[in-house]
Amino acid sequence: QVQLQESGPGLVKASQTLSLTCTVSSGSISNSDYYWNWIRQPPGKGLEWIGYIFYTGRTYYSPSLKSRVSLSVDTSKNQFSLNLKSVTAADTAVYYCVSYYYDKGGYRLFDSWGQGTLVTVSS
Amino acid sequence: SYELTQPPSVSVYPGQTATIICSGDALPKQLAYWYQQKPGQAPVQVIYKDDERPSGIPERFSGSSSGTTVTLTISGVQAEDEADYYCQSADYDTTYWVFGGGTKLTVL
Fold first, then answer.
1. N- to C-terminal Cα distance for chain B?
2. Interface of B with A in 18-77 (CB under 8 A)
């Protein structure tokens, strides 16, 4: 089972861009059985799916964040990244990188989650 | 955009059965996934593909689907099951994923 680890600044100023990277280990990010996701959780609130990326670079985003989000993948480093622009205090959250594993029939099966990283947006 | 609806809270006594319902218009077409989250921890998947249980998840956790609702059932609830539970599914066209608002399970 793949393992994931988030990294990036824990503090971002309002109006700037939040950037996080997820490093994948115990597996290849180029494995076509996986989609690579970002999910966030504001303090005391619920989970929010941000988007996911396939190793080819194909992306899918949440409609509510689509105008501010971009995901990218670096297969040489076995990493994928999140950029969220024009952040506000409402973007303060724990950000998780998550893998979704699909079977040969195209059905999503299991997840693996990073430990999460808290990003605070300051004014 | 698409939404999944869960009750904010459910309370049961130890040994009883807890039922958490998630509703959404696309659920007749889309599969659902359930997560358990304890304070300070990352979520853990307890059900995938409506009713399948990952290895290591106790048999008392089960899932079902009927029409526009999916249900997580915890039989013989134990104190350690107290947590937040989230359902997740996709929109009609499977272009994005959505979480329900979460249900806090309290073991009395």
1. 36
2. 31, 33, 35, 37, 42-45, 48-49, 52, 54
Say which residue the tokens 């359902």 belong to. Answer: B87
**A49 at interface of B, judged by CB pairs closer than 8 A:** yes
Flag whether residue A120 sits within 8 Å of chain B, measured between CB atoms.
Answer: no
Cα angle at A51 between A45 and A55, to 5 degrees?
Answer: 145
A49: Cα separation from own chain's centroid: 9
Place of tokens 């921890």: B41
Q: Is B96 in the A-facing interface, judged by CB distances under 8 Å?
A: yes
Q: What is the pLDDT of residues A48-93, one digit of tens each?
A: 999 999 999 999 999 999 999 999 999 999 999 999 999 999 999 9
Question: From CA A23, how far away is CA A74, in angstroms rounded?
Answer: 10
CA B101, CA B103: separation in Å to the nearest integer? 7
